[in-house]
Structures are given as structure tokens and as C-alpha cells.
Amino acid sequence: MADTAARSAVDLLTEARELTDHILDQWGRRLSGELAGRDGEALAYALATPGKRVRAALLLASYRAVGGTSPAVAGVAAAVETVHTYSLVHDDLPCMDDDDLRRGRPTTHRRFDVATATRAGYLLVPVAARVLAAAAEALELPPAALGRIAADLFRAGGIEGMVGGQWLDLEAEGRTLALKDLIAVHRGKTGALIRAACTLGAIAARAEPAEVAALTAFGEEVGLAFQVADDVLDATGTSEELGKTAGRDAELAKSTYVSVLGVGPAQAEAERLARRAVGHLEEAGVAGGALGALARYIVTRNS
Ligand code: GRG
């Protein structure tokens, strides 16, 4: 049973990676044509980085769980991954986490330079809007659904979500946070976009409000679980496994679930959150086999 779930998560991630990478590669080529020189190259470099595509997989699985069938939904997943990519480019900058390695390759500012990576990061935000607009057309989404998806994605990526969480995270460096404040950081900087991936999949499938609510609740729990697992991996994984510098949280004196609770209790909390996530789907009668497998993967992965 556990093996079946693991296989199903791996299959879904592989499919999400193939679909999303194809779209993002096409955008990378198009953008390096539109924007000559290093800026275009840096955009294509950032978009081509080999991410796990967890957010894309969650979006596809959420979409299918409530009856969506069009392959064009991969464009919405690519838009979410574009916002995520922007956040990684900026997160690695010297003024934030100051890292040299991402997805097993030099970070964008190390491969190019800080000014180019900064511009490329900003440019990725309107690129995400273009990727989303193209997907909405291919999916023949009604304007109201596109409006809801765009509002939710960019709210989750903004001050109420990812940017706000990162802001709190940077301010908290060197300080010990209480667990409730740490939860706010994690829900914002990481959880908001993961939650949005699940909500967006449901809206794209034109799901009933109760189904959208259940997938949103699932995404909230799994989004927090993802960052708790990330805290554990940062403390226990190697740079080779992670594709980014391991042990960075301790170096930056960040409060994490590991610094507050310790490795074992942090891992147990990630697994509890994943189970709670699945509980929301069960309560609402949403078919969650693939989502359950992804939730399990998120808290047991090694990269
Ligand atoms: C202006 C304050 C301000 C912020 C700008 C930089 C930024 C916005 C937000 C940072 C958000 C961030 C990077 C949070 C960490 C999320 C996280 C755990 C990333 C790693 O995700 P994975 O493991 O990465 O899915 P891959 O490479 O597989 O896609």
C-alpha cells in the first residue's frame, strides 16, 4: 500500500515535471528572443532549472480530483511554478539567503550577476501572468474563473502570502520565534503558494464551492507540512541530496521547527499535518488518492 502510494506520487511528479518543463522551456526560448543579451539568458536559465514541480503536481491532482480532464491545465501549473521560480531567484540573492547552489546548479546571481538575477526575478512575475493568460485561453476558462485564479495566485504570491512570509522570515533572523510566529512565517513564505496550487486546480475544474474549500484546507495543511519537512531536511540532508546548501538555516540563525522542537518532533508534526490534510478531503468526499500520495511524499522526501 505504502509502495503503491509512493509510486503514484513519483508518477505524478514525473508527469507534472514533463508537462511543466516543456511549457517553461518554450517560454524561456521565447523570452530570450524578446529580450536580447544576459537578461534573456538569465530568464531562460531560471525557468529551465530542474525543480521537483511539487506545486504543479498538486495543482494537476487537485484539478483531476474534482473532475478536470483537460491537459491544458498544465499551463496554470506552469504559471504557479513561474511565481515559485521568481521567489527562488530572489531568495538566493545576497540580500536574502545569500546562496550559491540551487537545484544542483549555481544560483542565478552566481551564474550571471546580482543585478541581472534581480531583474530576471522581477521579470518573472509578469511572465507568470502571461503564462496564466495563455493557459486560460487554452482551457477556455470563463473570465470570472480566470479573475478568481489570477487574484488568488497573485495574492498568495504577495504581501498576504509569500512576500509577507519572507519579509517576516528575514526580520526574524538571529531571533528565536515562538511557535505561533514561526507558523505565520511558514504559512506565508511557503504555504501560501502551495495552498494556492490546490485552490487553483479546483477553480480551473469549475468545482463546487465545498470542493474548492476542501482542497484549500488540504493545501493549507500540506503547505505548512512542506516547510516543516524542509526545516528537517535542511538539518539532516546533504547539499548533494538537496541540490542547495544544507545547514543554511543554522548558519543564518533562523528559527525553524527543528530549532524550536528538535528533529524528531518536527518530523512527527510534518506527518501529522499531512494526515490532517487528507482528513479534509475525506470529510468532503473528494477523491484524494493521488493527493494523499503527494502529501505523504511531501513529508517523507529526501530532496
Ligand atoms: C521582497 C521580502 C521579499 C520577498 C520576495 C524571495 C521571496 C519573495 C520569497 C521567498 C519564498 C521562499 C523561497 C520560500 C521557501 C520555499 C521553499 C521551501 C522552496 C523550495 O521549494 P522546493 O523544494 O524547490 O519545491 P524546487 O527546487 O524543487 O522547486
Kindly describe this structure.
This protein has 303 residues and is an all-alpha fold. It has a single domain, classed as Farnesyl Diphosphate Synthase. The chain is built from 15 helices and 2 strands. It has helices at residues 2-34, 38-47, 54-65, 74-91, 108-111, 114-139, 143-156, 162-172, 179-204, 209-236, 239-242, 248-251, 257-261, 263-284, 289-300; strands spanning 101-102, 105-106. Strands 1-2 form a two-stranded antiparallel ribbon. Strand 1 (101-102) and strand 2 form a beta hairpin. The longest helix is centred in the first third of the chain and has 33 residues, at 2-34. It is globular and about 45 Å long. The chain starts with a helix and ends with a helix.
Brief summary:
The chain is an all-alpha fold. The protein has helices at 2-34, 38-47, 54-65, 74-91, 108-111, 114-139, 143-156, 162-172, 179-204, 209-236, 239-242, 248-251, 257-261, 263-284, 289-300; strands at residues 101-102, 105-106.
- Lateral strand order in the biggest sheet: 1-2
Question: What gross morphology would you assign?
Answer: globular
Q: What percent strand?
A: under 5%
Quaternary structure type:
single chain
Number of domains: 1
Radius of gyration: 18 Å
Distance between the amino and carboxyl termini? 22 Å
Q: How large is the count of helical segments?
A: 15
Low-confidence stretches: none
From the 3D structure, determine the CATH topology.
Farnesyl Diphosphate Synthase
- Compounds present? geranylgeranyl diphosphate
Give the helices and strands as they follow along the chain.
HHHHEEHHHHHHHHHHH
Helix content: over 70%
Helix/strand/pairing class, anyone? mainly alpha
CATH class: Mainly Alpha
What would you say the CATH architecture is?
Orthogonal Bundle
Number of strands: 2
**Name of the CATH homologous superfamily:** Farnesyl Diphosphate Synthase
Calculate the mean pLDDT score and round it: 96
The main sheet comes to: 2 strands, antiparallel
